[in-house]
């Protein structure tokens, strides 16, 4: 049976995201900060906030630090090499939260019915050998970056629904996984649509299903920071979330809801192209960027039903302590909980 997340009513917490869209004279001035990101369309809210001056309007002098996987980003937050970041919940992030080093403060990317989301892919070799749907995953290998990554969580949940036993193969980086999929060294993988559609459309792999069919309303990525920033730098953290949320709103209007008009859509693709597929000509990158336009959470709201499900899975696998609660992982005072 498919796992479904219950949705909670928005809580409108005092000091939380109900105030995020409000603008005014920035309380901060030239506050330097490093923001961790992946070169994915799903990280566009940060790119938009930077390029359109929303961070600057809040008094934030932002510099990006780019990563190739989620868990190293969590380590960077804990060590102070990055101040804020956007990525998936991982075993590493949860363990750092348990040690008092990190806190989730908002939501970023979500699966939403009716919007193309993360894809389940099969290598061409595996497809030819019968892996034509996720129902045929039993006995197959499944690519992940690291054990305890979001790829591991998604693969395990899909396999559980299908009653399949799979071998998880850690390959550290997305680029390495793509190479392994193309060469048939691994059988299956899940990935965001701007990568998945490009690979399957070009014939490098086969598309065999959608993650949303197994994990509806999945909170794919979150916004997080150090526990010290969450508790001791409230004005700075609220300023970051305000700017980030404005970037998400612009992205959704241009490429998800498409209410901003065709010209705004083209402008948004050009902006994102500075960070995603920047090594490709615009004409080639445009289709992939548009294909990757998943919903970014309004006001950085966080789907706590999904967060609880993810935390429960990590506990069940023995990857984090049973004593860890959502309160350990999440500071719920900044944005609406849904």
What does this structure look like?
By secondary structure, the chain is α/β, with parallel strands linked by helices. It folds into two domains: 208 residues, Periplasmic binding protein-like II (D-Maltodextrin-Binding Protein, domain 2, 3-Layer(aba) Sandwich), CATH 3.40.190; 95 residues, 3-Layer(aba) Sandwich (D-Maltodextrin-Binding Protein, domain 2), CATH 3.40.190.10. Helix content is 40%, strand content 17%. It has 14 helices and twelve strands. The strands form four sheets. It has a five-stranded mixed sheet with strand order 2-1-3-11-4, sandwiched between helices. It has a three-stranded antiparallel sheet with strand order 9-6-10. Helix 6 links the parallel strand 7 and strand 8. The chain is globular, with a radius of gyration of 19 Å. The relative contact order is 0.22.
Topology:
Layout (H helix, E strand, L loop, with lengths): L30 E7 L6 H8 L2 H4 L2 E7 L3 H10 L4 E4 L3 H8 L3 E6 L1 E2 L8 E5 H5 L12 E4 L5 H13 L4 E4 L3 H10 L4 E4 L1 H9 L3 E6 L11 E5 H6 L1 H23 L5 H12 L8 H10 L3 E2 L7 H13 L9 H4 L9
Parallel strand pairs: 1-2, 1-3, 7-8
Antiparallel strand pairs: 3-11, 4-11, 5-12, 6-9, 6-10
Helix pairs in contact: 1-10, 3-4, 8-12, 10-11, 11-12
């Amino acid at each position: 049976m498919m796992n479904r997340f219950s949705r909670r009513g928005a809580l409108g917490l005092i000091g939380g995201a109900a105030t995020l869209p409000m603008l005014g004279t920035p309380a901060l001035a030239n506050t330097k900060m490093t923001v961790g990101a992946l070169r994915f369309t799903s990280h566009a809210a940060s790119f938009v906030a930077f390029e359109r001056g929303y961070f600057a309007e809040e008094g934030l002098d932002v510099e990006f630090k780019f990563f190739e996987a989620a868990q190293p980003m969590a380590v960077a937050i804990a060590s102070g090499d990055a101040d804020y970041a956007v990525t998936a919940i991982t075993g590493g992030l949860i363990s750092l939260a348990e040690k008092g080093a990190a806190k989730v403060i908002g939501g970023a990317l979500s699966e939403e019915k009716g919007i193309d989301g993360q894809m389940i892919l099969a290598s061409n070799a595996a497809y030819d050998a019968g892996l034509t749907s996720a129902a045929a995953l039993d006995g197959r290998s499944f690519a992940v970056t690291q054990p305890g990554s979001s790829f591991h969580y998604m693969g395990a949940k899909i396999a559980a629904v299908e009653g399949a036993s799979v071998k998880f193969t850690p390959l550290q980086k997305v680029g390495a996984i793509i190479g392994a999929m193309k060469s048939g060294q691994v059988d299956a993988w899940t990935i965001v649509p701007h990568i998945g559609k490009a690979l399957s459309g070009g014939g490098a792999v086969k598309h065999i299903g959608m993650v949303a069919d197994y994990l509806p309303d999945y909170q794919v990525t979150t916004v997080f920071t150090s526990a010290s920033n969450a508790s001791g730098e409230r004005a700075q953290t609220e300023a970051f979330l305000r700017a980030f949320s404005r970037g998400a709103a612009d992205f959704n209007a241009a490429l998800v809801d498409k209410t901003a008009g065709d010209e705004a859509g083209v402008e948004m693709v050009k902006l994102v192209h500075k960070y995603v597929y920047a090594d490709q000509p615009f004409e080639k990158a445009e289709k992939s960027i548009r294909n990757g336009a998943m919903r970014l959470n309004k006001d950085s709201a966080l789907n706590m039903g999904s967060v609880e499900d993810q935390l429960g899975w990590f506990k069940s696998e023995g990857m984090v302590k049973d004593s860890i609660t959502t309160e350990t992982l999440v500071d719920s005072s900044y944005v609406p909980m849904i």
